[in-house]
Amino acid sequence: MPLKKSQRSLKKWTGEKWTTSSGKKSSETGEVYAPKAQIKRLKSTSKGRSKLAAANRKKRQATAKGKQHARHGLHKGKKR
Fold first, then answer.
1. How many domains is the chain built from?
2. Segment 16-29, tens digit of pLDDT
3. Which residues pair with 18 in a beta bridge?
4. pLDDT tens digit string along 44-79?
5. Is residue 11 part of a domain?
6. How far apart are CA 67 and CA 30, in angstroms?
7. In this predicted model, what pLDDT tens digit does every residue of 63-72 receive, in sequence order?
8. What is the pTM of this model?
9. I need a labelling partner for 29 at 20 to 30 A (CA). Which of 4, 12, 51, 59 fits?
10. CB count, 10 Å around CB of 50?
11. % of the chain exceeding 90 in pLDDT
12. Residue 20 lies in a domain
């Protein structure tokens, strides 16, 4: 029996390697978690690096306010 679209998406998502841009724990650095390939793609351009830095700032601000999740914009277009 073939998988539904949502099940295929979940299977792909769980197979991705998620990390922070530094490779350290987010609890230590305050950085956002994203798929490794996305972080590599963002680090390759100056626009991407500034977008990643802005996302990390938003994540740190939300964490300082006691929030568990931050709307940092790296996952725009995804329903959450």
1. 1
2. 899 999 999 988 99
3. 35
4. 999 999 999 999 999 999 999 999 888 888 877 665
5. no
6. 12
7. 999 998 888 8
8. 0.77
9. 12
10. 11
11. 56
12. yes
